[in-house]
Design a protein that fits this description.
The chain has helices at 57-76, 85-102, 108-119, 121-138, 151-164, 178-198, 209-221, 226-245, 273-280, 287-295, 304-313, 317-336, 340-343, 377-385, 395-408, 440-451, 456-463, 468-472, 479-495, and strands spanning 2-3, 13-15, 20-27, 34-42, 45-55, 351-354, 357-363, 370-374, 414-421, 424-431. The protein has 496 residues and is α+β, with helices and mostly antiparallel strands. It folds into 3 domains: 2-124, no CATH class; 151-259; 273-447, hpI Integrase, Chain A, CATH 1.10.443. The strands form 3 sheets. Strands 1, 2, 3, 4 and 5 form a 5-stranded antiparallel β-sheet that branches. Strands 6-7-8 form a 3-stranded antiparallel β-sheet. A two-stranded antiparallel sheet has the order 9-10. Helix 6 (178-198) packs across helix 8 (226-245) and helix 12 packs across helix 16. The chain is globular, with a radius of gyration of 30 Å. It starts with a strand and ends with a helix.
Length: 496
């Protein structure tokens, strides 16, 4: 049992002649959360009672500050609005315990009753409602309610149907992708965290615009990107629409325009053909070359201690192999134009010859589309030196190693990007190497091909995009290039 470190032990202490009330947070076992208890001292009574609430450490200070502000306002005789429901309920509990003491009725039993009625009143009301309906059904006053799954039960059923293939893509005979299923599972996990943080259980009647606002605020507080949140709520809406067809939903708030959270335009970069060749030719197996490249990183990018740390880390053969594996995967990704889930699977068994030309024949995991990718000699060489297939590197580790590769190769120029934190968006200069992501490969292929005057239709045949409009989103062009692109499109319209 541990108390918070470097955080005040008492969230609030209320003194009067008879009573001292304190809110305590303790950690049990290996759990990351802390359990809340209230300690009451009044005369001979000195007891601590668990509240049945756990909170994350980062919420402690917020609760502390808010209750202290409410206490001051209370003693001044002024009113204060407490936005957070948990904080508000905790303050109401403290006020209730003070009032009970003044009537000399405070006991451990009365404390437990106050906790139950103040903090868990929603649960109590729900239970009372169910019990009342059951009594009415038994007495024949109302028709038995048709059994329907709870929101969480239906969510589990829905995800299971996606996983086993009994629920397919909308208006399609294709299964949904693994990443889509993973997205739904992430939503379910976040809802559980939201419930735990707010001491609530979400069911059909709770899913309205008010919930949407609170849940999106919760996701934002976890530093999730705007586009990730938008993707989550899109999937959430898909789930709710399927539930509506079965008459499980209580309202249609999920169809309102407010349910569409604003995403943001991603300021992605692309890797030029010249840099792909530079990366391919990098001597990552040479310790002296790697260390020299790291040591030559400019001071404004990495300080001396950071450079020395990297130099020491990548002196070992194992760590240099990580750099080489990331390099090989990334080059293949840039030269094939596929998504990470597809280019990580590329191997020499996918080779296929058509009229003397060598292709990689691949079925895309996300869409199920079949694509034929012309084999670049560098891709062929990479597969050959890796035993016919690419090494498997997790997405996060791949990005991390590529940032080191980019840093060593001097890809350090600033790129102006839109950065979103919470509800605030602003422009910020970010070094190029820090923007290297797994999806940059796909954008790089499309942009390099277009700049080499490859027709959009030919690029689409490789990338598997369903329309030119979708493909254009991947093109990373300058303003002048966009103007020329627009001029070409207008010329096509005029001649058609």
């Amino acid at each position: 049992m541990l108390r918070f470190k470097n955080i005040s032990y008492l969230c609030d202490v209320i003194f009067n002649i008879f009573v001292m009330i304190s809110l305590i947070a303790r950690k049990y076992g290996k759990s990351k959360d802390y359990m809340l208890s209230v300690r009451v001292k009044s005369g001979s009574l000195n007891t601590a009672v668990a509240l049945g609430i756990s909170i994350q450490p980062q919420r402690w200070q917020l609760i502390s500050d808010t209750i202290k502000a409410a206490r001051k306002a209370y003693h001044r005789g002024t009113s204060i609005f407490i936005d957070d429901q948990l904080t508000s309920n905790l303050w109401l509990l403290m006020k209730r315990l003070m009032a009970e003491d003044k009537t000399s009725t405070i006991t451990k039993t009365s404390i437990e009753l106050a906790i139950r009625e103040t903090l868990h009143q929603d649960e109590k009301a729900a239970i009372d409602k169910i019990n009342e309906r059951k009594r009415n059904e038994i007495m024949g006053m109302i028709e038995p309610e048709q059994k329907k799954p709870t929101f969480h039960e239906y969510f589990s059923i829905y995800v299971q149907q996606l996983s086993d293939g009994t629920r397919l893509k909308h208006k399609s005979t294709k299964k949904v992708s693994i990443n889509t299923i993973k997205g739904f599972k992430n939503i379910a996990a976040n809802i559980k965290q939201y419930e735990k943080q707010n001491n609530v259980i979400i069911d059909w009647s709770d899913i309205n615009l008010a919930f949407f606002m609170k849940f999106t605020a919760f996701l934002t507080s976890k530093n999730l990107k705007a586009n990730t949140i938008a993707s989550y709520m899109q999937k959430f809406r898909t789930l709710m629409r399927s539930a509506k067809k079965l008459h499980y939903t209580v309202n249609d708030d999920f169809n309102e325009t407010e349910w569409y959270p604003q995403g943001e335009e991603v300021d992605n970069i692309y890797v030029t053909t010249e840099r792909i060749i530079q990366l391919y030719n990098a001597h990552l197996d040479d310790e002296a070359w790697v260390v020299n490249q790291i040591d030559s990183i400019p001071d404004n990018i990495k300080n001396k201690n950071q450079r020395e740390g990297l130099s020491g880390y990548f002196r070992t053969e194992k760590h240099r192999r990580w750099l080489m594996e990331a390099r090989d995967i990334y080059v293949v990704g840039c030269l094939t134009g596929q998504r990470y889930s597809d280019y990580i699977r590329i191997n020499d068994k996918m080779y296929e010859y058509i009229n003397g030309h060598k292709f990689i024949h691949l079925r895309q995991e996300k869409t199920g589309a079949e694509v034929y990718i012309p084999v670049d000699p560098k891709v062929e060489a990479i597969l050959a030196r890796n035993g016919g297939k690419l090494p498997h590197v997790e997405r996060e580790k791949l990005c991390k190693m590529m940032r080191v590769n980019g840093l060593m190769l001097g890809w350090t120029e600033d790129v102006s990007c839109t950065v979103t934190k919470g509800n605030m968006s602003y422009q910020e200069n970010v070094p190029y190497y820090k923007l290297l992501k797994t999806h940059t490969c796909r954008r790089s292929f499309a942009t390099n091909a277009y700049r080499a005057n490859v027709p959009l239709s030919a690029i689409m045949a490789v990338t598997g995009h369903s329309s030119e409009d979708m493909l254009r989103r991947y093109l990373k062009l300058s303003n002048k290039e966009r103007a020329l692109f627009a001029a070409e499109e207008l010329a096509k319209m005029q001649t058609s």
